[in-house]
Amino acid sequence: MDSLHHFLSTLSYVSEGVFLTLEYTLLSLLGGVVLGLCLALMKVGEYTIARRAAQFYTSVFRGTPMLVQLSIIYFGAPSLVSYKISPLMAGVFAFSLNSGAYVSEIIRSGIKTIDQGQFEAAKALGIPYSLMMAHIILPQALRGILPALVNEAINLLKETALISTLGEADIMRRAQLVAAETYSYFEPLMMAAVCYYFLVLLLSGIAKLLEKRLSYDCY
Predict the structure, then answer these.
(1) Residues 102, 17, 156, CA angle at the centre, nearest 5°?
(2) Residues 41-83: pLDDT tens digits?
(3) Domain count, the chain
(4) Which residues, 6+ apart, have CB-to-CB distance to 189 below 8 Å?
(5) What is the 8-class DSSP label of residue 160?
(6) CATH number where 38 lies
(7) Tens digit of each residue's pLDDT (9 = 90 or more) over 80-104
């Protein structure tokens, strides 16, 4: 009976970190998509400087570890300019910057799959570039890149476990605290793994519904 009570209390404590994990994931995903869209448009644009700047940005954030980026933003940069940043702000900022680099490549590849004739037809009709992208090109590209965007969201969800290094009480941090208190690591870490697994299933389920809706709208 005591072991069951301990198991349930541990499960309840670890699972309470789900809400914080989702908060980091959703905010970072929103920031990453907005940033990634801007970078992708720079990459496919006509301005060489903007295109090279976006490519350099992507190279830097894809070529360095996420933990290093998070540590620089939370520990490194504040020590240089004497300001304090909250773990939430640092985490969302770091994850958004990193995710934006990957999302930009996903969106760019999606835009490149659109037939060039549609670009030429839009130009011939005198449709402004911004309207062409917003109403013709990007809606078509979205249908093709949705699975890749879902994979990025799932990767981002799992990467949020790094906020435990900042002391945030997410799923991973709560599991570590229980393990340190009870000197039993297997049980709380398995609970954390189960929580992440079900969150991934939830994201995948939402993505499938969205994909069906987009496919239905095509007809």
Answers:
(1) 5
(2) 999 888 899 999 999 999 999 999 999 999 999 988 888 877 7
(3) 1
(4) 175, 179
(5) G
(6) 1.10.3720.10
(7) 877 788 999 999 999 999 999 999 9
Q: For tokens 């190279």, name the residue.
A: 59
C-alpha dist (Å) from residue 107 to 33, 67, 93, 178, 183 = 9, 25, 20, 41, 46
Chain length of the chain: 219
Token couple for 132: 């062409």
Range of the structural domain that residue 136 is part of: 2-217
**What's the predicted TM-score (pTM) here?**
0.88
**Tokens 């690591």 -> residue:** 185
Contacts 24+ apart (CB under 8 A), 40-46: 40/103, 40/104, 40/105, 40/106, 40/107, 40/108, 40/111, 41/133, 43/104, 43/108, 44/108, 44/111, 44/112
